[in-house]
Write a structure and sequence with these properties.
With 355 residues, the chain is α/β, with parallel strands linked by helices. It contains nine helices and 14 strands. The strands form four sheets. It has a seven-stranded mixed beta sheet with strand order 2-10-9-8-5-3-4, with helices on both faces. Strands 11-12-14 form a three-stranded antiparallel beta sheet, with helices on one face. The protein has a two-stranded parallel ribbon with strand order 1-13. Bound molecules: pyridoxal-5'-phosphate. Its main location: cytoplasm.
Length: 355
């Protein structure tokens, strides 16, 4: 049976990415070797790295003066690398979910952290607005898409200090004005590649301004200087990332991805809003188009498990909500076809009729 993959991460990848990765596992670039066993310094892999960096720059229109890095350690490593490299005295953060809170915790190891707004009071079901970022903050950090709670900031905020964003779960789902940012980072396992690589886009001039000593591996300048080849990079995930980037370009780039993502989200949210059984958990204006969180209304709540089982008979996988929200979460990343969303909506309608 065809599966409809709604996992939040690691998550669905395009058939193009999986097919090309599978082929390269057998024979990489005509070398007669598997991508699993080639040197990262071979000319064939160096070409992969160069092309992947160039395509990130092209798709996101990264301006001059920025570097694109492919690093290990996950997005969680960036929670400490950002303040290690950028925090002189004070940084401003918004607390919009589990990942944002983790980033705040790490930043506090390096200086003063001004949490300018939080939505924790309502279990992170909205994006706080009307806050001010102090002008003397070294940067303002926010999580553009809160993967667990299903809220999203789909624009580049206007503040008086440089921006830093964790875009792990919505990068490549819209055009971004990179020139507003000092750092953008994203773990690849949500919208790009298998787990193991993190994309970092960093403004070169933002570096070298802190007094503290930075361990070599945690210093962005190390990786910029060596083109993400200071140590062995995650070769396979980078190869897969390149396939996905090529695929995005072929489809028409991030504007086209956004058009598709909006259509998918609209379809699912309108089904939720017109349902007598299901209800969304997030303030409508702050809803994520990547991760759709919903629950059953109180009078039906004991049917949640049964719905997950029912959905699985239709090939629907990965819709169980994170334990801190409960209910359901359908992740609609770029690679998910709208047909899968239609199958989910039909399953919801059918289940509702049955009860
Ligand atoms: C998944 C996720 C993370 C954590 O990524 P790791 O690669 O597991 O460290 C951080 N931030 C956001 C927004 C995420 O979705």
């Amino acid at each position: 049976m065809k599966k409809h993959n709604f996992y939040a991460g690691p998550s669905i990848l395009s058939e193009y990415t999986i097919k090309n990765t599978a082929e390269a596992i057998k024979d990489f670039a005509g070398t007669g070797l598997s991508i699993l066993e080639v040197s990262h310094r071979s000319k064939e892999f160096t070409a992969v790295m160069d092309e992947a960096q160039a395509l990130v720059k092209e798709l996101l229109e990264v301006p001059e003066g920025y570097s694109v890095l492919f690093l290990g350690g996950g997005a969680s490593m960036q929670f400490c690398m950002v303040p290690f490299n950028l925090l002189k005295k004070k940084a401003a953060y918004t607390d919009t979910g589990t990942w944002a809170a983790n980033a705040i915790k790490e930043a506090k190891l390096f200086g003063e952290v001004d949490v300018v707004a939080s939505s924790k009071d309502k279990n992170y079901t909205y994006i706080p607005k009307n806050f001010t970022v102090p002008e003397d903050a070294d940067y303002f950090h926010f999580t553009s898409n809160n993967t667990i709670f299903g809220t999203e900031v789909r624009f580049d905020p206007d503040v008086n200090v440089p921006l830093v964003a964790d875009m792990s779960s919505d990068i490549f789902s819209r055009p971004v004005d990179v020139s507003k940012y000092d750092v953008i980072y994203a773990g690849a396992q949500k919208n790009l590649a298998p787990a193991g690589v993190t994309i970092v886009i960093v403004k070169d001039s933002a570096l070298g301004n802190v007094d503290r000593a930075i361990p070599t591996m945690l210093d962005y300048r190390t990786h910029i200087k060596k083109g993400s080849m200071f140590n062995t990079p995650p070769v396979l995930p980078i190869y897969s990332a390149l396939q996905t980037l090529k695929y995005y370009k072929e489809l028409g780039g991030v504007k086209e991805m956004e058009r598709r993502d909006l259509a998918k989200a609209e379809l699912l949210y309108s089904a939720i809003d017109s349902s007598k059984m299901f209800v969304g958990t997030v303030e409508p204006e702050d809803r994520s188009i990547m991760n759709v969180c919903f629950v059953m209304k109180p009078e039906y709540v004991e049917l949640e498990k049964e719905f997950i089982d029912f959905a699985s008979t239709k090939g629907i996988v990965g819709i169980k909500g994170h334990r801190s929200v409960g209910g359901f979460r359908a992740s609609l990343y770029n690679a998910l076809p709208i047909e899968s969303v239609k199958v989910l909506v039909e399953a919801m309608n059918e289940f509702e009729k049955k009860h």
